[in-house]
Every structure is written in C-alpha cells, then in structure tokens.
Design brief:
With 471 residues, the chain is mostly helical. The chain folds into 3 domains: 133 residues, Fumarase C, Chain B, domain 1; 253 residues, Fumarase C, Chain A, domain 2 (Up-down Bundle), CATH 1.20.200; 64 residues, Fumarase/aspartase (C-terminal domain) (Ribonucleotide Reductase Protein R1, domain 1, Orthogonal Bundle). The protein contains 18 helices and 8 strands. Helix 10 runs parallel beside helix 12. The protein is elongated. 46% of the residues are buried.
C-alpha cells in the first residue's frame, strides 16, 4: 500500500507532507497558519511567478551558476506550472506572510518537486533539486514577488483593455445612431439647452477612451522590474551580470516588454507604480458609475420617469410586481465599480505602509489589483453585450420633453435679451404653456422662424444666429 505521507524538514523542524503533493513543508506550514479567506492566487499570478522562475533558471544557466541538467529541469517544470498543470498545488491563502514569502516558497517547492520527477527522482528528494538552493538561486522573495505581480498585471491587462475598446465602439455606434434625436439637456437635473442623444452617448464613448489611455500610460510604469535586487536592493548573492541577463530572459519567456528598474532599491521599497495603476482603475470605475447612473436615469419609468431610452430586457425585475423590468446590467456595473474603488483604497493603504528597505504589503496589493482587472473586464464585457448594444431611443419622448423644456428660452437671448427671455421662461413655468406657444403667441417669432431656428444643427452647436434675429 503506498504511503500517504512523506517526512520533510526545514529550519523549524520536521513535518509530514502528503506523499502525492508537489508542495512541501514550508507551503504546508503557511497553509496551516493562514486559514483566512479561502481565496487562492489568481491563475495569472501563478503563471507570472513560474515565468520568473523559468527566466531565473535560464539566467543562472547562462552565467554558469546552475548545472545544465538542473537548470533544464527547473525550466521545464516552470513552463508546466505556467501552463496551469499544477494550479491545484498553490494552496496558500492570498492573506499570508508579508512580501509573499509563502507564495514564493509554494512556487519553489512545486517547481522543485516536479523538476525532481523529470530527473527521475522522488518528490521530496531535495538533494536533486532544492527549492531554495536551486529554484530560488540568485533570488529573494523581495524581488521576485513584486516582479511577478508586475508581470501578472501586464499579462492580464488585455482582459480589461479589450473590453474597454468594445464598449467605446458600441457607444460610438449608438452616438451615430442617435445623432438626429434632439432632446432637452439637463444641468443640475433641471431643464437646460437642447442637445442630441447622440451627443450624450458620444461623450460616454470619449470618457471610456480616455480612461483606457490613462490605464495604458500607467501600465508603462509597471514594466519596470527590480528582479536581481534580491533582499534589500544590493543584489547580494547574484552574478554582476545577473540583473541584465534575467531581465532579458523574462522578456523572452513571457513575450512581454520588461524594463530593468533604474534604482533597484526603489523597486523594492516603493509600490507607487501599483498605486498609480490602481488609481486609474478607480478613475475608470468612477466614470463607469456615472455612465451607468445616466443610463438608469434616462431609462427611468418608463411611463413615470424620463423614459428617453429603452434598455434591453434581460430578466424579470421583480418577484412581486408583474411586468417590471429593471436596469440590472447597469446596476451590476455600478456595484463592480464600487468594489474596484474599495480595492484601490486597500492598495493605497498598503502602498503607504512600506518601511525602510521593503514594503511587505505586496500580497494584498496584488490580490486587489488583479481582482479589479478581472471583475471590471468581465463586467464591462457583459454590460456592452447585454445592455449597450441593445439600447433604443424613444424619439417621441425626447421630442415631448424638448418642446416643454424651459431651456429653449436660452435661444431667445440673441433676439430679445436675457431678461425678457427669463420672463418668457417664467411664464411657461407658471402657465404650463411651451416656450414656443408663448414666443409665437406674443409675436416674438413666426412659426417659420421658430422652425428654422429649432433645426438641430443650429441649436446643438455653435452657429451664427444674427441672421435669424427679429427685424
């Protein structure tokens, strides 16, 4: 009968480890210590960590610091981990030892035991491949984990940038579709000058596009890695050419442009690049909340609210009110955005908590940023597909509010001056008459002049209105 456990030893003593586990004693200790959330590292973070280990083994081989057979086995095992073959072996909670030592050792042990197998040995026989001496050669948790996090952010960013591009495109299409739908603008939630529904949707598209540009700009700073700085920025226990070599190897292994940080000390003790990137996710979230709120307001009612647009009905809206349909996709997007803003607050607190040569709060920074990227990307995709693409304009409803808007009095400024125009607006409010009824009834304008003036191109943008003045 096969043995269920194997005995391993570390600096604290001995511990029994499941015989079939690729992780080892230090991973098991961390798992026992940190029964916190049940949350495990994101797939992309496991992949990024393995790529760092692969690049390090390659650099050590090139510099003569590892035997070829050992380095080759480590690189092969690292590639398998990067491909997702051992995700179940990464068992340490995301809330763990500072700096991510537990995650780093989890990776070291899994890769070491797989490399041992590839060399024909038995798991736990660290005389063949040792987690610290071989897999972690020329490394420290303090430089590998921030590097892995930076790489994970870059690798996962397309899962957000792509959906943002799709959302912008969908909003642009709606802007074009609604370009001739004239309606009352609203400022302070009060009637304002005329706009087009297309103009409103175009502004949403621009907000999304600008958010994407800011995120991409912040992402460029994430490319700066301190790999090779080891424990405190000095590069102790590394070859003089290791930093340059391992940076090139990581770019090659990951297919991502990686840049060596100018100051290895700063790369360890400052996490400001992460707070900048997280801050742009927060700014995006603020814009998404604003847009989702506008769509909810514009579609409100539909009979007793604004009802200027119709959102797609994707599910019944009430367990008690028959026929009710709620703006659930917009509601979902707002809630996801709230979570991303909360994540950014956590990142900010962690970034300022660094002390002296190291900020040890990297694990919580990584978890929150990667979660924000994931949930925002998924939410934006769902919102685009199940809401934005199916939005319809209610042109009649828009025209009704347009005719009743007190904001139309603004166009009279050029004809009769601000004070008289204000009096017309006041009369409309008191009598319930439209601005048009009052203006024509008082002979301020003729029907023909009013129709010419109310042409959308003239009242929704800059125009020379002098030729329309009453003579």
């Amino acid at each position: 009968m096969p043995e269920r456990f194997r005995q391993e030893k570390d600096s604290l003593g001995e511990h029994m480890v499941p015989a079939d586990a690729y992780y080892g004693i230090q991973t098991l200790r961390a798992d026992e210590n940190f029964q916190i959330s049940g949350l495990r590292p994101k797939r992309v973070f496991i992949r990024a960590t393995a790529l760092v280990k692969q690049a390090s083994a390659s650099a050590n081989l090139r510099l003569g610091l590892l035997e070829k057979k050992t380095a080759t086995a480590i690189m092969s095992a690292s590639r398998e981990v990067a491909e997702g073959l051992f995700d179940q072996e990464f068992i340490v909670d995301v809330y763990q030892a500072g700096a991510g030592t537990s995650h780093n050792m989890n990776a070291n042990e899994v890769i070491a035991n797989r490399a041992i197998e590839l060399l024909g040995g038995k798991r736990g026989d660290y005389s063949l491949v040792h987690p610290n001496d071989h897999v972690n050669r020329s490394q420290s948790t303090n430089d590998t984990m921030p590097t892995a996090l930076r790489l994970a952010i870059i690798l996962s960013s397309n899962n957000l940038i792509g959906p943002l591009a799709s959302l912008e495109s969908a909003l642009r299409k709606k802007s074009k579709e609604f370009s001739s739908v004239i309606k009352s603008g609203r400022t302070h939630l009060q009637d304002a000058v005329p706009v087009t529904l297309g103009g409103e949707f175009g502004s949403y598209a621009s907000a999304v596009a600008n958010s994407a540009l800011r995120i991409k700009s912040a992402l460029d700073r994430i490319r700066r890695v301190g790999l090779g700085a080891t424990a405190a920025g000095t590069g102790i226990n590394t070859h003089p050419r290791y930093r340059d070599t391992v940076t090139r190897e990581l770019s090659k292994a990951s297919g991502v442009r990686i840049i060596k940080a100018d100051d290895p000390f700063e790369a360890l003790n400052s996490l400001a690049d992460f707070s900048s990137f997280s801050g742009e996710l927060r700014n995006l979230s603020l814009e998404l909340i604003r847009i989702s709120n506008d769509l909810r307001l514009l579609s409100s009612g539909p009979n007793t609210g604004l009802g200027e647009i119709r959102l797609p009905a994707v599910q019944p809206g009430s367990s008690i009110m028959p026929g009710k349909v709620n703006p659930v996709m917009a509601e979902m997007l707002a809630m996801v955005s709230f979570q991303a803003i909360g994540n950014d607050a956590t990142v900010a607190m962690a970034v300022q908590a660094g002390q002296l040569e190291l900020n040890v709060m990297g694990p919580v920074v990584g978890h929150n940023i990667l979660q924000s990227i994931e949930i925002l990307g998924n939410a934006i995709s769902a919102f685009t597909d199940k809401c934005v693409t199916g939005i319809k304009a209610d042109a009649k409803r828009c025209a009704l509010f347009f005719d009743k808007s007190a904001g139309l009095a603004t166009v009279l400024n050029t004809f009769i001056g601000y004070d008289k125009a204000a009096a017309v607006a006041k009369e409309a409010l008191q009598t319930g008459k439209t601005i048009k009824d009052i203006v024509i009834g008082k002979g301020i304008m003729t029907d023909k002049e009013w129709a010419r003036l109310m042409a959308p191109p003239l009242i929704t943008g800059p125009a020379d209105l002098k030729r329309f003045r009453k003579r």
